[in-house]
Amino acid sequence: MLAMDYRGPYRVRAKHKPDPVIEHPGDAIVRVTRSCICGSDLHLYHGLVPDTRIGTTFGHEFTGVVEEVGSSVQNLKVGDHVLVPFNIFCGSCYFCQKELYSNCHNVNPEATAVGAIYGYSHTAGGYDGGQAELVRIPMADVGPTVIPKDLHVEDAVLLTDAFPTGYQAAEMGDIEEGDTVVVFGAGPVGIFAAKSAWLMGAGRVIVVDHVEYRLEFIKNYAHCEIVNFKDVADMAIHIKKMTDGLGADVCIDCVGCEAAGNAAQTLTGRYLKLQAGAATVLHWAINSVRKGGTVSIVGVYGPTFNAIPIGNAINKGLTMRMNQASVKRHLPRLIEHIQAGRIIPRQIITHRIPLEEVADAYHLFSSKLDNCIKTVLIPPGAYSNSVVSKEEA
Ligand SMILES: NC(=O)c1ccc[n+]([C@@H]2O[C@H](COP(=O)([O-])OP(=O)(O)OC[C@H]3O[C@@H](n4cnc5c(N)ncnc54)[C@H](O)[C@@H]3O)[C@@H](O)[C@H]2O)c1
Ligand SMILES: [Zn+2]
Ligand SMILES: [Zn+2]
Q: Which residue, 100, 148, 180, 342, is most buried by CB atoms nearer than 10 A?
């Protein structure tokens, strides 16, 4: 099969690899129809995630058609078109029973703090991902969801990560009616966090980024106020000025470890690697939220430590919530929102690129070229199978 192949920082290519096989009776093999590149893949691509091994295949946002099932799989059959949440999880451990699927305790032999994620380094379990023609799905009875007939495949692929992650980011903000919500990051996750904040009753949504075309997009798509941080001398003072001097009720970090905007953080976090990424947005969020407010974090930070102003957070009485998204928990509600026409996730897709051109696709998304918001890779076979026609793309 053709698959994305990691060769080292900033170097990926499309390569022929052996087809995956059923390794356990609970596995399935899925033929990929759509596979996105996520902001999280950029952390891998930039060499910031520990134990990212040469020769692995990334990709944790994908849909596909079930091609083969192991002998114990009961909930899937050959030919089902499924969306596959980015988390791999068992469905039955202590954490899964609490619907903390991203924190599943049974799927990652490499670490206890992190659950398992497709194509996300050996730190997250060492599973190959979906930027490929075929992918092995462990615990196939638990993760995949059959795509409802009336759901567009490109809305479905955004339900595997970006939309539920943005939604959970807003949910963890405990937004109350009328709240002012600040979202840091106008990438796909920030876009869906902003949309979700409205769905949860926010009175005001302000989005911060420095990429002008992304700010323009989010202003139109999610109807929020925008702030370009390049125009702002001090973020906390700026947000306080916008919010009667008190600060925002909720601040959401949809940026993570590769934040720009503070030279010292960038140097120590991204270049010297003295801390696990630049904690710029954590500073901005903690200092811009009002006393007693909530900071929600879905931006990714690696192990082991970041220099953050925890004293300010304590003295202000903040609630801080964070996690990898537990995608499956949100699906029923998000599918309902799409079917009711409240949101059309696929409108954020700006680029559809053949898997063969995966190197160009990473470069484009990483460098924010050609007004790129979200990039979808299309494997060669995806056009010819009966499920996805060229017209649909
Ligand atoms: N927790 C989860 O389950 C989960 C799931 C998906 C993605 N993520 C993480 O969410 C983050 C965003 O993902 P994405 O796909 O939207 O990525 P992206 O790279 O497309 O978007 C990030 C945006 O942040 C902006 N930015 C940089 N520095 C900033 C700053 N100081 N203030 C405000 N904005 C700033 C960038 O210009 C960019 O537009 C990443 O860290 C990703 O790893 C987490
Ligand atoms: Zn992701
Ligand atoms: Zn579990």
A: 180
Question: What are the pLDDT digits (tens) for 35-72?
Answer: 999 999 999 999 999 999 999 999 999 999 999 999 99
Q: Using CA positions, which residue lies closest to atom 42 of ligand 1?
A: 40
CA–CA dist 200, 170 (Å, integer): 8
pLDDT tens for residues 322-342? 999 999 999 999 999 999 999
HSE (side-chain half, CA atoms, 13 Å) at 201: 9
Tell me yes or no: is domain 163-322 CATH 3.90.550.10.
no
The angle at the Cα of 35, spanning 33 to 38, to the nearest 5 degrees, equals 165
Q: What are 378's two structure tokens?
A: 């299309």
Backbone region of residue 10 per phi and psi (left: phi > 0; alpha: psi in -120 to 50; beta: other values)? left
Ion ligand 2 residue ranges (Cβ < 5 Å): 38, 40, 161
Q: Which two tokens stand for residue 93?
A: 């451990």
CATH 3.40.50.720 residue window(s) in the chain: 163-322
185 lines ligand 1 (CB under 6 A): yes
What pLDDT, on the 0 to 100 scale, is given for residue 304?
A: 83
pLDDT, position 381 = 79
The DSSP secondary structure of 339-367, one letter per residue, reads: HTTS--GGGGEEEEEEGGGHHHHHHHHHT
Name the pLDDT band for 302 (thresholds 50, 70, 90).
Answer: confident
To test the pocket of ligand 1, the residue of 161, 255, 327 to mutate (highest count of ligand atoms within 8 Å of its CB) is 255
Question: Over the stretch 200-247, which tens digit does the pLDDT of each residue have?
Answer: 999 999 999 999 999 999 999 999 999 999 999 999 999 999 999 999
Predicted structure pTM score: 0.97
CB 358 within 8 A of CB 35: no
Determine if ligand 1 sits within 6 Å of the CB of residue 277.
no
The CATH classification number of 2-161+326-382 equals 3.90.180.10
